Amino acid sequence: MLFVMALKINLGCGRKYFPEWITAMSFPQVKADKYFNLNQPPYPWSQVARRILLDNVLEHLEDIPRIRKTASHLQTGGVVKIHVPYGKTDWALQDPTSPALFHEKSMNYFCDDDR
Hints:
By secondary structure, the protein is an alpha/beta fold.
């Protein structure tokens, strides 16, 4: 019921809890509004979100193409904002929980012209 009214969703919110957003996490050790396995789309809002934020979470998920496609199913005119650590930095390389690395051309993979 909470997601039906939600227009902004912070997916994998971590310690960034924004009261004006619906926050979602995979594990209950962090404060969030909803808990579910982020590696198992589809997510429970199904085209009601107007904005989705993935802030330093995408690199921790298993099926990035599927997650990206699922997150892009939102209201017409909606925006998905993704922040990932820059893969060519020590900060990105030092995190053993991040199986994926991203650089300036990583998202080009999802564009038809770059495959």
